[in-house]
């Protein structure tokens, strides 16, 4: 079959019809599968919390792991690993990660309609700050009135 040392002869062209259709649909399927996995991962991350601070940490971790995986893929390619071995490695990893993904997906409870504790804390902090500013303003006005009264 086709591999690094055994390419198609002559090279496949988009005008070749059937010889072009199978690789084209394979690439389209791989792109679709990649986007579905990423969308699912972001959906799970988004269901964990409503806090932008928490979500940014999870997404940063996810993107870090994703970049590490891309780095390993480039290293594997640079080492001259055959395409068949790369396919088997990716397929094996995909099967291995099904149980942990299922576990996470069943344990995550959507926080979409709940109020997040951090948001409540921020509102409470805001209310305290407003009361504090009102008290300071009231004290300032009283001092100013006392000073005006003593001058006259």
Q: Termini, distance in Å?
A: 103 Å
Helicity, as a percent range:
over 70%
- Name the average pLDDT: 84
What is the strand tally?
Answer: 0
Radius of gyration: 30 Å
Number of helices: 5
Structural class: mainly alpha
In terms of per-residue confidence, which ranges show pLDDT below 50 for 5 or more consecutive residues?
none
Q: What is the overall shape?
A: elongated
Please describe what this structure looks like:
The chain has 152 residues and is an all-alpha fold. 77% of the residues lie in helices and 0% in strands. It is built from five helices and no strands. The relative contact order is 0.07.
What tags apply to this protein structure?
152 residues, mainly alpha, elongated
Write the layout of secondary structure elements.
Elements: H1 18-48, H2 52-78, H3 83-96, H4 98-107, H5 117-151
Short description:
This protein has helices spanning 18-48, 52-78, 83-96, 98-107, 117-151. By secondary structure, it is mainly alpha-helical.
